[in-house]
Every structure is written in C-alpha cells, then in structure tokens.
C-alpha cells in the first residue's frame, strides 16, 4: 500500500487592472476553478488554496507574506495576465526598477521602486527547472508554452520576487523547506489559444508535475 504525502499548494491570480479597467483578469478566472480542489499524483495528495491578489504593491507587500505564513506550502504558483497568444513560465524575479503604478493610482509604487523588507539579491531565480517543466508539459499537449527571464517589472514580477524571498528567509526561520515557486503569465483574452477551463487544467498539470518532482 502506497502512503501518499499530503502537500499544500498556494495558487494566486489577480484582480482586474488597466486603463480603462478590464472587466476581469484571465489569471483569476483560471485560478479560482482550482480553489479547494484535491490533485492526486502517484505519491502525493495536493490540497489547493487559491486567493485573488490586488494589483497594488502595498497590498502585495502585506498579503503575500501573510499567505505564506497561513500554511506549510510546498508548492506556490502565482498567475498573472501577460502577452497575447502565449503562456510564459517565468524563471526569475527582480527586486528593483518598479516604475509603473498599480491600481490605486499615482502613489501606488513601492519605496524607491524596490521590493521592501528583504536583504536578498537583486534577482532571484526559482529552484524549479523551468525548461524541463515546459518540456514535460509539451509532451502532454501544451504547445503554446514559452520560458522567460523577464517577468515584467510590474506587480506580477513584484509578487514573484516576494514569494521567492519568503522562501529564502521565513521558511528556513520556520524550519521548513522552501516551496517550489513559479510564476505563470497567461494570455489576457478568453478566446486566445486556451479557454479559462483549459488554463485551469494547465495549472492543474503544473501543480501535479511539481508535486511529483518535489517528492
């Protein structure tokens, strides 16, 4: 009899943003379909915990660390809206050069354009082998996937950096292994390449893969 590990996955999408404000955000439309779902692998049972994030630096600065402290997560997948026609798997995140304002207006910028609160490198790279992940997903039929080293220097990049920094700082302090952390940029239109239901299935396959790889 195989005794499976119980793992917990933190999965986030974003609220609508832009000028004019978009009616929805593809990232959350996909992510919310996984909330409280159980994903089974050969060796693990993964419980999904899904949350919508504001497109605001101040809010992300508070909420993302709080979410990390709310559980013992072995997988973290952030999802945001990106370029049309493709899905991008991000490899790294940046601490500096944030100049584009968030949803709260002209003052919605991080102090000095930097992610605050961490004494970590200007660029943090996920421990996930993103190229290998993409290849495995392509073998499952996900053909519109690309890897990237530019998460955009906006709230998505800011969020990714915050999570990677949490993995380097608060997890060791809690005597926990750092979670496998990934950022996925999805296309902004519902009728572009993959439907919301398909994007949710892609995220499910990503979580399933990371659960297997992290055994």
- Sketch the topology as an H/E string, one letter per element: EHEEHEEEEHEHEH
Shape: globular
Give the distance, in angstroms, between the N- and C-terminal Cα atoms.
17 Å
Low-confidence stretches: none
Mind telling me the C-alpha Rg? 16 Å
The largest sheet, given as strand count, sense and whether it forms a barrel, is: 7 strands, mixed
What value does the average pLDDT take? 95
The share of residues in helices is: 25-40%
Q: Give the percentage of residues in beta strands.
A: 15-25%
Strand order of the biggest β-sheet: 2-3-1-4-9-5-8
* Number of contiguous helices: 5
Number of strands: 9
Structural class: alpha/beta
State the gist of this model.
This protein is α/β, with parallel strands linked by helices.
Structure description:
With 215 residues, this protein is α/β, with parallel strands linked by helices. The chain has helices at residues 26-31, 57-69, 130-139, 155-173, 196-213, and strands spanning 5-14, 38-40, 44-53, 75-81, 87-90, 92-94, 123-125, 145-148, 180-186. The chain has a seven-stranded mixed sheet with strand order 2-3-1-4-9-5-8, with helices on both faces. A two-stranded antiparallel sheet has the order 6-7.
Reconstruct the topology from this structure.
Blueprint: E1 5-14, H1 26-31, E2 38-40, E3 44-53, H2 57-69, E4 75-81, E5 87-90, E6 92-94, E7 123-125, H3 130-139, E8 145-148, H4 155-173, E9 180-186, H5 196-213
Q: What characteristics describe this protein?
A:
alpha/beta; seven-stranded mixed sheet; two-stranded antiparallel sheet; 5 helices; globular
């Amino acid at each position: 009899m195989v005794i499976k590990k119980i793992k917990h996955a933190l999965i986030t999408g974003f609220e609508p943003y832009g000028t004019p404000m978009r009616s929805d955000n593809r990232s959350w439309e996909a992510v919310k379909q996984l909330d409280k779902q159980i994903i089974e692998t050969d060796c693990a049972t993964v419980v999904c915990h899904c949350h919508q994030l504001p497109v605001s630096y101040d809010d992300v600065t508070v909420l993302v660390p709080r979410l990390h402290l709310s559980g013992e997560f072995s997988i973290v997948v952030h999802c945001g809206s990106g370029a049309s026609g493709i899905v991008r798997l991000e490899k790294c995140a940046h601490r500096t050069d944030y100049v584009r304002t968030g949803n709260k207006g002209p003052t919605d910028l991080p102090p000095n354009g930097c992610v605050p609160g961490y004494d970590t490198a200007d660029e943090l790279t996920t421990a996930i082998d993103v190229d290998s992940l993409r290849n495995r997903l392509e073998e499952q039929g996900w053909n519109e996937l690309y890897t990237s080293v530019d998460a955009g220097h906006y709230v998505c990049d800011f969020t990714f950096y915050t999570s990677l920094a949490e993995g380097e700082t608060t997890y060791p302090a809690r005597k926990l292994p750092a979670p496998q952390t990934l950022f996925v940029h999805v296309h902004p239109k519902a009728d572009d390449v993959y439907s919301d239901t398909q994007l949710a299935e892609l995220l499910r396959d990503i979580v399933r893969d990371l659960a297997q790889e992290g055994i």
